[in-house]
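dumping these here so i dont lose them again. two proteins, back to back, each one seq then structure tokens. dont judge the mess
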Amino acid sequence: MKPARIAAAITAVYFILSAAYILASDYVALRVAENARELEHIQSLKGLGYVVIASAGLFLFSWLLLRRLREKVDELQEGREKMLLTDRRLLAGTLSASIAHDMNNLLGAVRANLEFIEDQAQLDPKTVEALEDTIELVDGFRPLNDRLGQAYQGERDEAPVSTDPGVLVRQATHMIASHSRVRGHHVSLDLEDVGPILVSPGLLQNAVINLVLNAADASPSGTTIRVRLRSDDAGVRLSVEDQGPGIPADERDQILEPFHTTKPGGTGLGLFTVAYCARAHGGRVEIHDGDHGGASFEMVLAAGGGGDVENTPGLSDLARRE
């Protein structure tokens, strides 16, 4: 309905109700009043009653109109925010896909050069082993880039498979052992045979790498980083303990949030990816005081297998939380 018609309808209703009130009240006043003074008194009360009724009606009408207007403003604001979020996610997805494509090209060239050096040069066994580890690390970047590219298309992480988490943990710690941030530490492995579970290999290995790097950053050079795997009634527990200063209890929830960091130049995404991995497998991350000082980060995976990896919000959904 057009505004003019709405205004005309409201005016007509107001006119009809006012006229009906005046005529009805005059009729009653004439029948009730016994003299002119009493009629004058009734007319005064009638006028005051009209003002009260009209004011109440005006208040009710204004309140309903303003409430409806407020609802419309809120709906428009929500729609605007959704549009901005969609644009932001589209831009982030496009950028991530572009970066993933360029990185795959560069990694392909790096891998080819490494293989050429391995084939052509006369290298000692330790150097050959280091080259092979480097090639393996380069290959490990490709799934990460694929995930960046898939973020643009709204796809999720790799499907979970039944595998031995101990093997994945051992591979991840071996790959990260030569990292400059880890070389000055001793990485101790205590991996219980927990049997195969349903797990997303890439997610779990990335979580292990982030936990070990975080422990290395927190610990003085020459100390031990303890990596432990075991199972209990709650599920499979993977813990990484450092020998740093520890983490105050009131800060333990914050450090798992995206973009929260205490390191100069840090991104605040390392521990968030660990928490994401745990949630994707139906579990959680617990932070305790370590047995040997420092902090112990424990990732608990759901008993009997992984969680709903495919329906867990992906890392590309970080835009929702900005």
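---- next one ----
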Amino acid sequence: MSDWLEITDDLGPEKVVHVYDPQTGMRGVAVIDNMPMGLAGGGVRMMPDITTREIFGLARAMTYKFAVLDVPLGGAKSGIWADPSVQGNKREAICEAFGRALKPLLDAGLAIGPDIGTDGRDVELFYRGAQHPHRRTGLGATEVDGEPLENLATGYGVVVSAKAACEVAGVAVESASVAVEGFGKAGSSTVRYLAEEGFELVAVSTIKGALYHPQGLDAARLLALRSEFGDDLVAHYDGAQRIAKEALYGLPVDVLIPGARPYVINETNVAHIQAKIICSVANIPITEAAEELLFQRHVRTVPDFISNAGGVVVVLTDWLGGSPSDVFASLRNLLPPLTREILLDAEQHDTNPRKLAVARAVEKVRAARHTRQSLSFDQFKARIEKRFRSVG
């Protein structure tokens, strides 16, 4: 009971549902943080070491993400305790069982998508198991230059946010050095767009270690090696120093991009951070205490629920019947202004950017809850279409 009480506040979570299927061994959890308009959304994470507290933190991050984008959805997140490398019939059975278990929540207004350890195929299995209509057309799985759009959009959003942060910080993009933690699906897309925009990538990490070269890494070669060797690419890239993956956080770079699990920057390593800017692929990568310490040291941190909003924009664009080009245009139009606004306002108010962004998001959620308005899906689509047109 004490664990449950520790994660409740005046926003939520409204529902924390643990599910289990004896036949498949599926164990999962769904957290709906809130549904101020009768709808909520968030991805499904599959990892063997997730915790309910972690899933709640991610659901709350989704609440902030939707609010800061002025999208009338509440935040949610789900998790399955399983090895993401499992394939074949076993994976299919686990995913369908999880979908069946979530059917009451899906019927009540929950929308789910992919997250770490899952992909669009898994999402189709979740909905199939629940025998629930899936409103997405598959835009996120559409390949652009050989990569799923949902991965590319996340990486692109991080890069355009990082560019805006560099403008605020007075850092020239052409000479800005960058370290990327978590060279996975979204991390590799981030590397791709960093190279296209002229950043100097000097370090990357996977679960197998990290590479560092102050004069720059070859992004094209890294991407090719990842395609061939996966996380083992660090053992096959010549001409760079191999370092412990934890050492990446303390490198002397202009921009640090955390891209994996929550709270990787915390009280134990924050003193070693040398970056001028932190712009995240990952959700909730920095603890509250570390965030405040970074602000006091004049490190500019872009709130994660702004920088990594690419996946959300893909889903919303899909529901509106848009195209890949619409996704990239929306990211260019939405994220840089939000990044500049929150960084500049944080300086003016002498508070850290995430704290300020959270306060504004919470205010929007409370206002939405006060109206007690419940939207149909068609009404929801009309609202987000109007929002996207306003920044087009």
